[in-house]
Design brief:
Blueprint: H1 7-23, H2 29-35, H3 42-54, E1 58-59, E2 68-69, H4 71-81, H5 89-100, H6 106-121, E3 125-128, E4 137-144, E5 149-156, E6 161-167, H7 174-188, H8 198-207, H9 212-229, E7 235-238, H10 252-262, H11 265-273, E8 279-283, E9 295-304, E10 307-317, H12 322-348
Antiparallel strand pairs: 1-2, 3-7, 3-10, 4-5, 5-6, 8-9, 9-10
Helix pairs in contact: 1-3, 1-4, 2-3, 5-6, 5-12, 6-12
């Protein structure tokens, strides 16, 4: 698309978009001539703006003589014109410190990620929790509580932990406990939840034939892990009311459809799950099927040990400050990936 506009039209489209993102006011030719040193007269700028409007890059609100970018104009701006605002070392360090303080638990670090995105962008944030169907068993730990009670903990690579107290009427020796632990870890470590088949469970059962009671309890625990982490990913939403700070949504009839969309987790799940695997900017009408045609969303995937497990994103008006938001989302996703990978490796030890 970048080749469709000549250099003069690119400059005019860029300054109109930059100006409108800041002011939320339609931009006229005299404003451009006065604020920006383009070396063009208002009449020339006006002609170029008319061409851009005819080409679908600008729109003219009926209440103003100025122009605003269309969805097509924003798309061109994001793909070819905008200058990304690089994050400072202080901002990157802030992201790292804020998330690092919460990396003891998966849910805690996900919650903090959504809050941090709101704080840094001033837009509502969306976070799709780790793709739990692909979660991998990392470790099963057996801890003696008494002569007849054992605490069994199952840890996945995403940091999720499930536990169960298992009672043995006749007791169990330390040597037997070590052997059971060794068998379970050898058989299950590195296995994805979705790949836990009955054939594997049968292998484990044959190995633990002398401890049938323990096998039954262990299978209940594994089933609980699958039931808890194997369900569909959760969408975390934070800062929804921040959208009220944007003039586009100051009126109830414009704000209510957006809030209705934010209340439908199925719709948000679809929106985020479609963007797994990279960085995406979906603008205005590109979100029409989800009832969010007046909004844009910037998303980036995050990983555990190189495996994509979820998505973080920011939702705002099409007038979103893309040049600011995109680096924040990308850097946050990268740092979250780093910390989750560290959590995974620690759990596997």
């Amino acid at each position: 698309m970048a080749s469709e506009l000549d250099p003069r039209k690119k400059k005019i489209l860029k300054v109109i978009t930059d100006d409108y993102i800041v002011s939320a006011e339609p931009v006229g030719s005299r404003t451009i001539a006065r604020r920006y040193d383009l070396g063009l007269s208002p009449a020339t700028i006006r002609n170029e703006m008319a061409d851009l409007e005819e080409g679908g890059y600008l729109e003219q609100p009926h209440t103003s003589a100025g122009r605003i970018p269309s969805d097509q104009g924003y798309r061109y701006y994001v793909d070819a014109l905008m200058s990304l605002q690089q994050l400072s070392e202080k901002e990157i360090e802030r992201i790292h410190q804020e998330l690092d303080r919460h990396r003891q638990q998966l849910e805690s670090i996900i919650h903090q990620t959504s809050k941090l995105l709101v704080q840094m962008t001033r837009y509502p944030s969306l976070v799709l929790s780790p793709h739990s169907e692909d979660a991998v068993f990392r470790h099963i730990q057996l801890v003696r509580l008494s002569d007849t009670a054992i605490l069994a903990l199952v840890v996945t690579d995403s940091g999720h932990v499930e536990n169960k107290v298992i009672e043995f009427e006749g007791g169990i020796s330390d040597a037997e406990l070590d052997r059971i632990s060794l068998i379970l870890n050898e058989k299950l470590r590195g296995i994805r939840l979705k790949d836990l088949r009955s054939s594997l469970l049968s292998e484990i059962r044959s190995e633990l034939i002398a401890h049938q009671d323990f096998y039954n309890e262990a299978i209940q625990l594994l089933t609980r892990v699958i039931g808890t982490t194997g369900t569909k990913e959760r969408v975390y939403i934070d800062g929804a009311t921040k959208i009220l700070e944007q003039p586009e949504f100051s009126e109830l009839h414009k704000f209510k459809p957006l809030m209705d969309a934010l209340d439908e987790e199925e719709r948000l799940y679809k929106l985020l799950s479609e963007n797994i695997g990279g960085t995406f900017v979906k603008i205005g009408s590109e979100n029409k099927s989800l009832g969010l045609s007046g909004c844009s969303i910037v998303t980036a995937s995050y990983e555990i040990a190189g495996r994509t497990v979820g998505v973080i994103g920011v939702l705002g008006p099409t007038r979103m400050d893309y040049a600011k938001v995109l680096p924040i989302v990308e850097n946050t996703a990268a740092i979250l990936s780093e910390l989750l990978t560290q959590m995974s490796r620690r759990c596997s030890k």
